[in-house]
């Protein structure tokens, strides 16, 4: 009787194992098929994609070339510029400083920049939520005149601060890189560290993001993916001084490090649960209208399931990540050509995982 029971248990374990293998292979094929619709040139720029469910990596693949000229294949370990995904780190840095009592999101920016126009009516909260009304400097006609210039944060702020406001603070939501530039400078003022040092020491080092950096084209970075522009023929990316994207878009990372980042957020390593709830709250305009943005993340839905997501775009690179908090699903994708946005792909992959989760309840 005991032997029969043992055999049945063994058979059940084997069945569950084979079912899990079959399930994993099915998911892998579905994701491979999605990627092949965009990344169909094995000799061109490529991308890296990672999917995690409940802390376990269930998909991690690279496609295409990390360097076309040297004919180097992409690997999952490649380091990419992540563009506006940088805003997540800037927002969390601000909230870390709030928890330390060094600032408050209700502070007006005139507390830190006394000469900023209308600074008494614009708060840190407005900067975090893209509701400040400040002109986005990346949309200014003269932006290319400073693109290669190494500017101090204050000089970059001076470039746009006297531009007319798009609207009164709190009246509308309008995505805005200038606001996150101001946040980076405020981080420097209250922490007595430059933005690069604060992010690398207080965040990257603290949670083991050992392959993440403030971007540099001169520093030797192991496993760097080189950036390209598309069109009739691929071209090397346009060079830009990383003092320009700064706190709105100047970081580099890997998909594995980004998973560490997501796990640090989940486990309240950097900020408390109470603060985290504020970060991921649908904040409101002056008239009470809710916006689909927290602090550094878009708050959306896929298949009626709530998501936290953000993409990034910078010369030669595009990035995207989606987190599904109710299911603990994380999907992140990087591309080393700004001709191939991973945004739709990452959301489609997340949709596949969500649907399979529903089927297997």
From TrEMBL:
One Pfam family from the record: Beta-lactamase
TM spans (from-to): none
GO MF terms, alphabetically ordered: hydrolase activity
Signal peptide: none
PANTHER family per record: BETA-LACTAMASE-RELATED DOMAIN-CONTAINING PROTEIN, D-ALANYL-D-ALANINE-CARBOXYPEPTIDASE/ENDOPEPTIDASE AMPH
Keywords noted in UniProt: Hydrolase
Domain named Beta-lactamase-related: residues: 41-338
Keyword Hydrolase on entry: yes
Native source species: Gaetbulibacter jejuensis
Protein's UniProt keywords contain Hydrolase: yes
Name of the protein this chain belongs to: Serine hydrolase domain-containing protein
């Amino acid at each position: 009787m005991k032997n029969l029971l043992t055999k049945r248990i063994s058979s059940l374990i084997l069945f569950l194992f084979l079912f899990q293998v079959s399930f994993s292979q099915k998911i892998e094929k579905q994701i491979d098929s999605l990627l092949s619709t965009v990344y169909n040139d094995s000799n061109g720029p490529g991308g890296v994609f990672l999917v995690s469910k409940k802390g376990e990596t269930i998909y991690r693949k690279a496609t295409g070339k990390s360097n076309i000229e040297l004919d180097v294949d992409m690997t999952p370990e490649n380091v990419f510029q992540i563009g506006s995904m940088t805003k997540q780190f800037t927002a969390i840095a601000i909230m870390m400083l709030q928890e330390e009592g060094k600032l408050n999101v209700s502070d007006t920016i005139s507390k830190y920049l006394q000469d900023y126009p209308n600074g008494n009516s614009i708060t840190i909260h407005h900067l975090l939520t893209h509701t400040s009304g400040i002109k986005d400097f990346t949309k200014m006609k003269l932006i290319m005149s400073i693109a290669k210039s190494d500017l101090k944060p204050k000089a970059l702020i001076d470039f746009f601060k006297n531009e007319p406001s798009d609207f009164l603070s709190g009246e509308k939501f309008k995505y805005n890189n200038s606001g996150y530039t101001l946040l980076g400078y405020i981080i420097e003022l209250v922490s007595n560290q430059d933005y690069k040092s604060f992010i690398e020491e207080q965040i990257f080092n603290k949670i083991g993001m050992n392959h993440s950096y403030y971007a540099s084209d001169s520093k030797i970075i192991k496993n760097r993916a080189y950036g390209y522009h598309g069109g009739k023929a691929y071209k090397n990316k346009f060079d830009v001084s990383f003092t320009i994207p700064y706190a709105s878009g100047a970081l580099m990372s890997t998909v594995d490090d980004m998973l560490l980042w997501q796990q640090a957020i989940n486990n309240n390593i950097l900020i408390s649960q109470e603060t985290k709830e504020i970060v991921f709250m649908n904040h409101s305009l002056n008239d009470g209208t809710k916006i689909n943005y927290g602090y550094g993340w878009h708050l959306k839905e896929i298949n009626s399931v709530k998501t936290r997501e953000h993409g990034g775009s910078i010369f030669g690179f595009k990035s995207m990540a989606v987190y599904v908090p109710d299911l603990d699903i994380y999907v992140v994708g990087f591309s080393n050509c700004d001709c191939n946005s991973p945004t739709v792909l990452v959301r489609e992959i997340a949709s596949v995982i969500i649907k399979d989760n529903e089927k297997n309840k």
